Amino acid sequence: MIGATSAGQPSTGPRRLRAAMVGGGQGAFIGAVHRHAMALDGRFELVAGALSSQPDRALESGRALGLAAHRTHGSWQALLAHELCLPADERVELVVIVTPNHVHYEVAKAFAESGFHVVCDKPLVHTSAQAAELERIARERGIVFAVTYNYIGYPMVIQAREMVRAGQLGEIRRVVVEYHQGWLATRAESEGNKQADWRTDPARSGIAGAMGDIGSHAENLATTVTGLDIEAISADLHTFIPGRRLDDDASMLLRFSGGARGVLMCSQVATGCENDLRLRVYGSEGSISWRQESPNELEFLPREGPRQLLTRGSPWLAEASRRATRLPSGHPEAFIEAFANIYVAVADAIQADPAQRVAGAERGYADVSDGARGVRFIEAAVASSRSEQKWWPLRQ
Amino acid sequence: MIGATSAGQPSTGPRRLRAAMVGGGQGAFIGAVHRHAMALDGRFELVAGALSSQPDRALESGRALGLAAHRTHGSWQALLAHELCLPADERVELVVIVTPNHVHYEVAKAFAESGFHVVCDKPLVHTSAQAAELERIARERGIVFAVTYNYIGYPMVIQAREMVRAGQLGEIRRVVVEYHQGWLATRAESEGNKQADWRTDPARSGIAGAMGDIGSHAENLATTVTGLDIEAISADLHTFIPGRRLDDDASMLLRFSGGARGVLMCSQVATGCENDLRLRVYGSEGSISWRQESPNELEFLPREGPRQLLTRGSPWLAEASRRATRLPSGHPEAFIEAFANIYVAVADAIQADPAQRVAGAERGYADVSDGARGVRFIEAAVASSRSEQKWWPLRQ
Amino acid sequence: MIGATSAGQPSTGPRRLRAAMVGGGQGAFIGAVHRHAMALDGRFELVAGALSSQPDRALESGRALGLAAHRTHGSWQALLAHELCLPADERVELVVIVTPNHVHYEVAKAFAESGFHVVCDKPLVHTSAQAAELERIARERGIVFAVTYNYIGYPMVIQAREMVRAGQLGEIRRVVVEYHQGWLATRAESEGNKQADWRTDPARSGIAGAMGDIGSHAENLATTVTGLDIEAISADLHTFIPGRRLDDDASMLLRFSGGARGVLMCSQVATGCENDLRLRVYGSEGSISWRQESPNELEFLPREGPRQLLTRGSPWLAEASRRATRLPSGHPEAFIEAFANIYVAVADAIQADPAQRVAGAERGYADVSDGARGVRFIEAAVASSRSEQKWWPLRQ
Amino acid sequence: MIGATSAGQPSTGPRRLRAAMVGGGQGAFIGAVHRHAMALDGRFELVAGALSSQPDRALESGRALGLAAHRTHGSWQALLAHELCLPADERVELVVIVTPNHVHYEVAKAFAESGFHVVCDKPLVHTSAQAAELERIARERGIVFAVTYNYIGYPMVIQAREMVRAGQLGEIRRVVVEYHQGWLATRAESEGNKQADWRTDPARSGIAGAMGDIGSHAENLATTVTGLDIEAISADLHTFIPGRRLDDDASMLLRFSGGARGVLMCSQVATGCENDLRLRVYGSEGSISWRQESPNELEFLPREGPRQLLTRGSPWLAEASRRATRLPSGHPEAFIEAFANIYVAVADAIQADPAQRVAGAERGYADVSDGARGVRFIEAAVASSRSEQKWWPLRQ
User: Where's the Gfo/Idh/MocA-like oxidoreductase N-terminal domain (chains A, B, C, D) (predicted)?
Assistant: First the structure.
């Protein structure tokens, strides 16, 4: 059936790591994605959980997932307490935090302080002070702490990053990153949509709506691929749906370290859009364009010569991109595989020599520092939007 | 991160079924795909295997996959013998056959006769007589026997089939199905490409090359979506690469039951193509177009009104299509998910009331009869190509 | 507004040639296209006409077009007679024949015998005997005789042809040409559609319907780009609409000189299709793909390296392609410009040294021999479809 | 060849209007485009010109275009003087101004004051004071004064505008308009590129570079389609190429009357881009997306139901869009046809009852007021970029 010779087959050798999940019970969305992603390559085994803040639901969800009864808990505190009682070779090594945002901090802090490795959904926490605290703990405890900016796990995003690093784009001049969704184009939070409910609630979602939920993905994608820092922004956040308490639409001008300029846009009221995340980077020697909804392709526009369509899995791609695939070119991979690449990178990090621990970006995942930068970005976006000052600086 | 409300979350309730794999050891390609597909939804657990025809490699591959040592065997005969000694509640329930084609028959026959459910890679076997024998055994033993024509597991292929069934295309007039690959555009079988080696060897691949390997996918895709039988063909198979022993390029005219006409093309010397499987169906009321390399989209051209781009996971799709997804629209799914859908359908079939067993197509997989039809199709293609007779009939 | 440096500006130097038109009066379609195409570059001036077979309509159409009254005629015979009375420096130099097919022969013959240059719409005539006669006359009178296979006038088709000639595709193996339209998906000829009326009438359209109307374009496109002769075909022509008297859907297998194989398809009942002409050529070193509905792009798939998207007007294109454009890349040209390129090529041919007259293909238009080949192709398609003989030879 | 029933055939009835051209001689680009556009539909006849500021070149260019010797002038002043001596029925009715920007004002003023209708390239003039003066003159003299914002002549842009007007998008929330070119990615003005030379020279181009040259197209496109005024902007103009004297890259945030927000981007250093003008408008009921490089398509994303691909010439389009085409759907039209639509609209305006003269936008062209708005926009963009004030208001 399949003829490619470069079939990437993930190593199946290493021992499976034991994982617990907090949040992600029945009716949740992102928890299931994390489980699919973990399952794909078999680097983690989910053995314990506190899958909901409602004890009944937590227990029922654990049963449905086939977790052992004694490792299914009604609260994350119970989960933590029980795990700490287990011998090291039974205890989970990783906790996966997929609750609504407002719960991230206390869970992450508690597990990190106890020395568990952490995978936490984004945005990391509500405030940059919390983020700095988690950075400190992670550093002191020497743990792996990943934040699931999953889009940087796509092989063609990795290819883009490698092309930038290799100088194929020359000096970067212009970055346009945009993320349009339409699912909040009506007041879905009043129509029984659970996702909409918490994501538009400042108490649970934080100070930003669309900017926190998807704008932060755009920020992470742009900075990861270009390797540039955003130095200043000029933002305009807006709420289109009457009664909504957080922004649902935003645009901002960007100024990067090194002189590049650009634009970041995000909207959740972009009617008819599904998950339209796109990145374009224009450099002096060439430009690239990538679109999440067609993730297997990366367009490359060299300064001279015809434009090129690079496709995932091709032998002429950068090695880091080729390694991040499971299937030959033409056999598309997609969202779950990209998400799973994050988990592979995390597993590699956990199983690497602790003495040689490197920044997450070097392994292909966003670490707690990247997550903290994302929180500072959200804070700056909100502040800039409220300000009459044209350029708002970002702390690095 | 994700805002859709219709997140399809595969049921996690049912008991995991125990599976063994024959073939698919280190260096093989398709075995890894089957394992990824099984892993994704957790409906099967791989617990035993005879992963190579070379005992050493078989054992080493089993270790690498984490199989228990006593359930890793150096031959499929040893695997079968051992499983038959186990109590029913330990014994595997399914055998997955991912060897080169020439081994399919004896393995499938032996396991089927012993009452194991079977998933076998395509094409099913070398001859229609063998296929008929397997059909007979499967029927008599009442087993589930699936052939992994995986492309029909794509949600938008399911959507296409449902639209045909619902009459949205009206009377079907024209079917164009094509499958172009370029990986055999040079004599790869002489360049150390293991896949190319056996796929161009009549002893292992059967009487057809490209026609058997990918033309049979095209046949299955076209007939599954349209629900029509191919009644007669006029085929032209050709070998472009000097020294190659099987066809590497083919085209044929098609005549369907009910009067539709069409074309089937396949080539493995289509330089630069990756895995370019496409289907177009033209009906009196509308037409559809689908392309495997952009699998989340289905184009629909109604007789009146603008063309439509249907996207996977949208609420206005047919229920069978919506059920076959894990992620909301805009979060692309791809090859592995489609493959996994076949496994979900097989698991459902195995766990369904045996008294109510239905044709695989009703559940979303190709069964042994579909596989047998595929073998007859390959035989007819070869015969037609050699004949001066314009139209060659297909036995149904 | 426009920044390209390579703006192709058609030479405006040469004297305008005087032209007459037969057919193309009010309500006709293709006549207007010819006039737009002639107008674009100013190489011809339309000064006389017999614009309809209905004298009243002919005269009224002439008035509407601003022709002088004494050069507007009620019949082509009157036009011819009058032109022959004029002094050479007033007489038209070219006759453009845009009547329904059945009138082509007598008009073309009469004007050609009188030494006028001819542009005739396709298909050239009803029978290969008629075509041979026109070939003979054109050769003997030394006239330029063009048949408006307009699609070969597209710059990216010219680019494709040049790439084949330059060996960039290597040995050509496979050719897939297809032309799908949907405008005859219902019985439009019974619904007052004048175009449908004559095109489905054997007396006016000839022995073939879709095959003559659009299949012949596909034949011309494939042979012009590849430079290969079609040696044998196996055709299946069909009529889907009850009561229709000519084929409305066809497919055929192709065998080319030099060993290439392929498929030609055409249909006018392909519901929802507009003017979906596509060509793919697969060679040992690379493949190309072109689609008329996106005519400014040509996809090139080299054997090694990423696929390329060549765009009209780019400096790295072949010189013949660059010459056939008026605008810089990114400023799209389309159908009329391609049609106008045919007229530019005809004007160049007329104004070239008669001693150095070359085949039309060398200048970028189809000449009477290409038109004759097209007629033989149509005859062979109909004969093959009626025959039980698998391969039907084409006379070259 | 062509089967559509709705072949749009431009009326050929009205008398041709006499036109003169100022600028556009040999080596110029845009002049040739204007001539192609005028030629296409035969509504204007070019009979006089002052085709270059260099008298020799002007005369030679006139000869090459076939203008009568006595109507070919070495300066626009000579042209004007001569025309004023001619009797009304010989005198040109329209002057077309296609010089570099800095010449627009004096030529337009002189001809307008003498009562000639004017077509002037964009941006109209260097200052809003000049623009206001031209507005005043045009109003007082009752002339038609068009500014060739040619992109609004595309049929699918007209369709977009009609859909907004008809409420199919609901309340407009978000507008993203962008125009990326790459031809100034190097210092082309130092490499002998004549276009680059004057367009980067403040003396000839005005106070803005990319913003004036292409950003103004983006402004016009966005406001024409949406019917909304831009009330305030926050702009960031930048020059990437060392030594260049005008901006070559810009982005701005937009606030529209009625509350819509958005982004406008333009760059001429976007390496590899050709003429990548795109518009997206997101409304409460639906969104649209259009791209100049694929101008025959308009994507429509309704709030409920599948996305639609509207194609030029389809019977279900708005009447104004259908009228602006010459060919049936599937037979692509492009840049020149869109440009020609402007000329058709101008001819209609000139030949309409002067008592019923309406705004250009009602007829499909940008008039002097639209041109003046464009100049104020450019001034605001430059001022905003230099200011530390976040929001810069636009005078309407």
Answer: 18-149
Residue type, A326: R
- B132 and B162 part of one domain: no
Read off the CATH number of the domain in which A225 is found: 3.30.360.10
| Residues B253 and B159 placed together within one structural domain of the fold | yes
Does the beta carbon of B285 lie under 8 angstroms from any beta carbon of chain A? no
For C249, the closest of B170, B173, B287 (CB atoms) is B173
In three-state form (DSSP H/G/I as H, E/B as E, the rest C), the secondary structure along chain A is CCCCCCCCCCCCCCCCEEEEEECCCCCCCHHHHHHHHHHHHCCEEEEEEECCCCHHHHHHHHHHHCCCHHHECCCHHHHHHHHHHCCCCCCCCEEEECCCHHHHHHHHHHHHHCCCEEEECCCCCCCHHHHHHHHHHHHHHCCCEEECCHHHHCHHHHHHHHHHHCCCCCCEEEEEEEEECCCCCCCHHHCCCHHHHHHCCHHHHCCCCHHHHHHHHHHHHHHHHHCCCEEEEEEEEECCCCCCCCCCEEEEEEEEHHHCEEEEEEECCCCCCCCEEEEEEEECCEEEEEECCCCCEEEEEECCCCEEEEECCCCCCCHHHHHCCCCCCCCCCCHHHHHHHHHHHHHHHHHCCHHHCCCHHHHCCEEHHHHHHHHHHHHHHHHHHHCCECCEECCC
Residues B111 and B176 reside in one and the same domain: no
Each of the 396 residues of chain C gets a pLDDT tens digit; together they read 333 333 333 344 578 999 999 999 987 788 999 999 998 888 999 999 999 989 999 999 999 888 999 999 999 999 999 999 999 999 999 999 999 999 999 999 999 999 999 999 999 999 999 999 999 999 999 999 999 999 999 999 999 999 999 999 999 999 999 999 999 999 999 988 988 998 999 999 999 999 999 999 999 999 999 999 999 999 999 999 999 999 999 999 999 999 999 999 999 999 999 999 999 999 999 999 999 999 999 999 999 999 999 999 999 999 999 999 999 999 999 999 999 999 999 999 999 988 888 899 999 999 999 999 999 999 999 999 999 999 999 987
What's the rounded Cα separation, in Å, for the pair D198 and D121? 15
Q: How far is A117 from chain B (nearest CA, A)?
A: 22
- Are residues B177 and B70 part of one domain? no
CA C250 – CA C237 distance, rounded (Å): 4
Residues B76 and B165 occupy one common structural domain: no
D105, D220: one domain: no
**B interface mutation test: which of A190, A274, A277, A311 has the most B CBs within 10 A?**
A274
Provide the β-strand partners of residue C237. C250
Of chain B residues 240-279, which have a CB less than 8 A from chain C?
240, 249, 251-253, 255, 261-263, 265, 267, 269-273
First to last CA, chain B: 50
Q: Is residue C24 situated within a structural domain?
A: no
Across the strands, what pairs with C367?
C146
Q: Which chain A residues are within 8 Å of C310, Cβ to Cβ?
A: 306
The answer on D174 and D323 residing in a single domain is yes
- Do D164 and D287 belong to one domain? yes
Read off the tokens for B316: 């206005």
Domain limits for position D58: 17-150
B394 occurs within a structural domain: no
Interface of B with A in 300-329 (CB under 8 A): 311, 326-329
- Interchain contact C284–B (C-beta under 8 A): yes
